[in-house]
Design brief:
Helix content: 10-25%
Number of domains: 1
Protein name: VOC family protein
Order of helices and strands: EHEEEEHEEEEHEEEEHEEE
Low-confidence stretches: none
Strand order of the largest sheet: 2-3-4-1-13-16-15-14
Radius of gyration: 17 Å
CATH topology: 2,3-Dihydroxybiphenyl 1,2-Dioxygenase, domain 1
CATH architecture: Roll
CATH superfamily: 2,3-Dihydroxybiphenyl 1,2-Dioxygenase, domain 1
Pfam families: Glyoxalase_6
Number of strands: 16
Strand content: 25-35%
CATH class: Alpha Beta
Largest sheet: 8 strands, mixed
Length: about 240
């Protein structure tokens, strides 16, 4: 048994407004489901939902998870940046250098993301969301390799990455040192058991090094775990 990456979920003061921003940036369709909440549908068989979940608490620290968006050409990068700015995004400084090819932005609620320069071979063919870029150690990359059953596609200098055998966005970990956490990760992974037995899958994830945090982050029966670095994720029931 493995887990399936169902969604990347984002806490939002105004979920619909944030969904409209990301729908405009990514060109994905918005759905508003009584159970799922406001979400963007996957962009193909290898994709995942992007969900926007209500949380009135303000953002206080840099997110441990962000999107890296790809560019097919320098013009494509400029157009993505311009579209994001027109929709309510803004430029931010997270310590990038003046010669960095990527453009670092924040969405209307301050969630960081990068628009990667054209010609980035590591993200070639991954789709508009080239990577789900996570703050985490090499051990966590190995944890998620086993959790999702995806092979490692990068393992060097404490940095790791995995990708579905079918392609699509990579999930990457940048290695130590880790950023501080304010106790709740506003952007996190949501998984569902691929075999249907959630209790057995939770036991497997705990044996791999996860810890139990609680229940009820989205719905009453969601189980919240943390990876070996303490970054939260949710195991949903389906």
């Amino acid at each position: 048994m493995t887990s399936h990456l169902f969604a990347i979920s984002v806490d939002a003061a105004d979920p619909l407004r944030l969904a409209r921003f990301w729908s405009g940036v990514l060109g994905r369709e918005i759905v508003d489901d009584p159970r799922e909440g406001v979400a963007l549908l996957p962009d193909g068989d290898t994709g995942f939902r992007v969900r926007f979940l209500p949380n009135p608490d303000p953002k206080t620290t840099q997110n441990r998870v962000h999107f890296d968006l790809t560019s097919g050409s320098p013009q494509d990068q400029r157009e993505t940046v311009a579209r994001a700015l027109a929709l309510g995004g803004r430029h931010i400084d997270i310590g990038q250098g003046p010669d960095d090819g990527q453009v670092v932005l924040a969405d209307p609620e301050g969630n960081e993301f990068c628009v990667i320069e054209a010609g980035n071979t590591f993200l070639a063919g991954c789709g508009p969301i080239g990577a789900v870029n996570c703050d985490g150690t090499r051990a966590v990359g190995y944890f998620w390799r086993e959790a999702l059953g995806w092979p490692l596609v990068w393992d060097q200098d404490e940095e790791t990455a995995i990708q579905s055998p079918r392609g699509g966005a990579k999930v990457t970990w940048s290695g130590p040192p880790l950023m501080p956490s304010d106790g709740r990760d506003r952007v996190h992974l949501d998984v569902v058991p691929s075999g249907g037995d959630r209790d057995a899958e939770i036991d497997r994830l705990l044996a791999l090094g996860a810890t139990r945090v609680g229940v009820g982050r989205h719905t009453a029966d969601d189980v919240v775990l943390a990876d070996p670095d303490g970054t939260e994720f949710c195991v949903l029931s389906r």
